[in-house]
Design goal:
The complex is a heterodimer of chains A (about 220) and B (about 400). Chain A is mainly alpha-helical. Helices cover about 65% and strands about 0% of the residues of chain A. Chain A has one domain (about 40-220). In chain A, helix 2 (about 20-25) packs parallel to helix 9 (about 140-170) and helix 5 packs across helix 6. Chain A is globular. The relative contact order of chain A is 0.16. Chain B has 2 domains: about 55-195; about 215-385, no CATH class. In chain B, helix 5 runs parallel beside helix 7. The model of chain B has no long low-confidence stretch (mean pLDDT about 85). Classes of the chains: A mainly alpha (about 220), B mainly alpha (about 400). The interface of A and B includes residues 193, 196, 203 and 213 of A.
């Protein structure tokens, strides 16, 4: 009798940010990173990381979409017939993507034009669908929400660090498009010739490879 | 020599196991084996084939094969410089200008490349390979004479780290390292490696009246928009300051502006002869690259839609870097196809793609670099098909 109540207690007392739930947020930043470990969402990582600003907007957009799609799919997970689950997931994701798209158009129109189709393409981003299939369909809403946030952050981390390197060495500026745009080399009085390769998607692909190389040599991750 | 031997012997115990600089053993070993023949011999047991050739000797053979190109290139840099500024100059002056321009590039290429090799071999605890000897010489030969040295350094570092060490070092690279360096510069800093950069002209120097730095490839590409005959354009080029600069004989001997080592088809053929005679390079690849380019040229002659396509096919063999690429780049034993049939296919496709890129892609006047890099990637696939075709052929013959 006593053991039974104890078990129930453990299940009930799971804190909002228990160790397990925190892991959902932190794992995607390193050992379970959507870009460098799961190798998902590469397409947008190559396409819109030539400057920091679109990279930030894109990461925010994707985090928002992944988190809320995860949340809603997770709430509906017991009622979705498994044969049509993909189309249901797509419908939910597209609602959030359209919201992001409309928000961008309304408030940062320039950014929306710059990112063109890539906002719409969040809907086919493997990270979103991957998290829905792999996590939200089998877990409770709150952990699913955190998982979505975490993966969005992991994606954003790589995206923004790539954009940082590409913008700095590709065109010699940082935070172009913001009020505090910084022409790094010019302000130091140096003449810097931008590296054209980094501005090409091919250069971004090599850069992702280098980031993966560095990350894996630090954390010792190996492909199974 | 004796002094060097003694110093090395004295220092040796520091680098051996348990010594002070144990970590740097492989760096030391590299220096020692570079200076003297190693005293290790093949064990008496279990070895079937014995040959004097090792990696070091193979690489030195290739270097020797490249020397005609290098020496001619050094002369040509000076020659083109004096032609462009309209001065008469003696042989030695031309060589001197060439040496001043070319030597720093060679030093930077070897310095940076070998430095990275030593760092990686120390980190990964493997011997330094001689593979870089050839690469370090190939890189300067495919650069324009007035390339900024820092760009050479960056490109070399990129090629050695990303093109080679990331794949596991010498013998493991998928793509030709020297061409990786050139491709890097081509996409990263296009202003210094494309357009009219092929003649060494210091700042502030007056060029001769009527001077133009256009290369034969640029002229041929231009003729597509102008609708003029390529050959007559080439023949009339340089009138007044360098008559007949782009005549067929000149294109063949290579007295024209271009990358340091690649202008002369003649010197490349001498190199090809050395490679063929010593067996260091595959003649099948060389022949098939030329054959592929010529065949594609003939095919385009037949179509003859624009002036570039009408250009006689044999011109494709002497303009640009086709000969150099065919002899020294495509034959790289690591990145080329390994099977004998595969070599024919591999070379033929390189030649074919080179001409295709030249004629149909105005953004890339020279196609040999991209063609070789592309076929490097496909070489394992070609080998795979050759091997599996061989298997099916033999299986058919077998009676089970």
């Amino acid at each position: 009798m006593s053991t039974e109540t104890a078990e129930v207690k453990v299940a009930k007392s799971e804190a909002l940010f228990s160790k397990k739930n925190k892991k959902l947020l932190t794992n995607p930043l390193d050992i379970d990173n959507p870009i460098t470990v799961q190798v998902l969402g590469i397409c947008s990582a190559l396409a819109i990381t030539s400057q920091i600003k679109p990279a930030i907007v894109m990461s925010l957009g994707l985090t928002f979409v992944t988190a809320f799609s995860n949340l809603f799919i997770s709430m509906m997970r017991n009622t979705i017939p498994s044969r049509i689950r993909i189309i249901v997931q797509l419908a939910i994701v597209s609602v959030w993507v359209i919201m992001v798209d409309q928000l961008l158009k309304a408030y940062v129109y320039d950014m929306s034009k710059l990112m063109s189709v890539y906002v719409g393409l969040i809907i086919t981003n493997c990270i979103v669908m991957g998290r829905l299939e792999a996590y939200a369909m089998a877990n409770k809403p709150w952990p699913s929400f955190l998982d979505g946030l975490g993966n969005g952050f992991g994606y954003g981390l790589i995206l923004i660090s790539m954009a940082f390197i590409r913008e700095l060495f590709g065109s010699g500026t940082l935070f172009k498009g913001f009020a505090f745009e910084w022409k790094v080399f010019e302000s130091m009085g140096l003449h810097y010739q931008g590296n054209g390769l980094l501005l090409l998607p091919a250069g971004a692909c090599i850069l992702i490879g280098i980031i993966i190389w560095i990350q894996r040599s630090i954390n010792g991750y190996r492909e199974h | 020599m004796k002094f060097l031997r003694n110093t090395l012997d004295k220092a040796k115990h520091n680098f051996e196991k348990g010594g002070k600089f144990e970590k740097y053993y492989y760096a030391f070993e590299a220096l020692e084996t570079f200076a003297f023949s190693p005293n290790t011999t093949t064990s008496a047991k279990g070895v079937q084939i014995r040959d004097a050739i090792d990696l070091k000797r193979l690489m030195m053979t290739v270097i020797i094969a490249m020397t005609p190109c290098l020496i001619f290139g050094i002369f040509n840099v000076g020659h083109q410089h004096f032609l462009a500024i309209g001065q008469e100059a003696g042989m030695m002056d031309k060589f001197w200008i060439g040496v001043i321009q070319v030597l720093p590039i060679i030093i930077v290429s070897y310095g940076v490349g070998l430095g990275i090799e030593f760092v990686f071999s120390t980190l990964r605890r493997h011997p330094v390979n001689e593979g870089y000897l050839v690469t370090g010489m190939l890189i300067p030969l495919v650069m324009p004479p007035d390339i900024p040295l820092w760009q050479v350094a960056v490109a070399t570092a990129f090629a050695v780290i990303i093109g080679k060490e990331a794949f596991g070092g010498t013998g493991m690279n998928v793509m030709n390292v020297a061409l990786t360096a050139r491709a890097f510069l081509y996409f990263a800093y296009p202003t210094q490696i494309s357009g009219e950069v092929w003649t060494y002209l210091p700042e502030g120097v007056q060029t001769v009246a009527g001077y133009s730095g256009a290369t034969p490839l640029a002229i041929a590409a231009q003729s597509v928009t102008d609708g003029t005959n390529v050959v007559s354009q080439l023949n009339s080029f340089g009138t007044g300051w360098a008559d007949g600069l782009y005549s067929f004989t000149n294109l063949f001997t290579g007295i024209m502006p271009g990358s340091i080592g690649e202008t002369s088809t003649l010197m490349c053929l001498i190199g090809a002869f050395i490679l063929w005679a010593t067996g260091a390079g595959s003649w099948k690849i060389m022949v098939s690259v030329f054959a592929g380019a010529w065949a594609m040229g003939l095919l385009l002659n037949g179509l003859a839609v624009n002036p570039y396509m009408e250009m006689p096919a044999h011109y494709h063999l002497v303009i640009g870097g086709l000969a150099f690429g065919a002899v020294f780049m495509a034959t790289d034993p690591v990145t080329a196809a390994q099977t004998e049939t595969g070599k024919w296919v591999y070379g033929f496709m390189i030649g074919l793609f080179t001409v295709l890129i030249r004629v149909f892609n105005p953004a890339y006047p020279e196609g040999i670099m991209l063609a070789i890099l592309l076929m490097n990637v496909f070489a394992p696939l070609i080998d795979y098909f050759v091997v599996s075709a061989n298997k099916t052929r033999r299986l058919k013959r077998a009676t089970v």
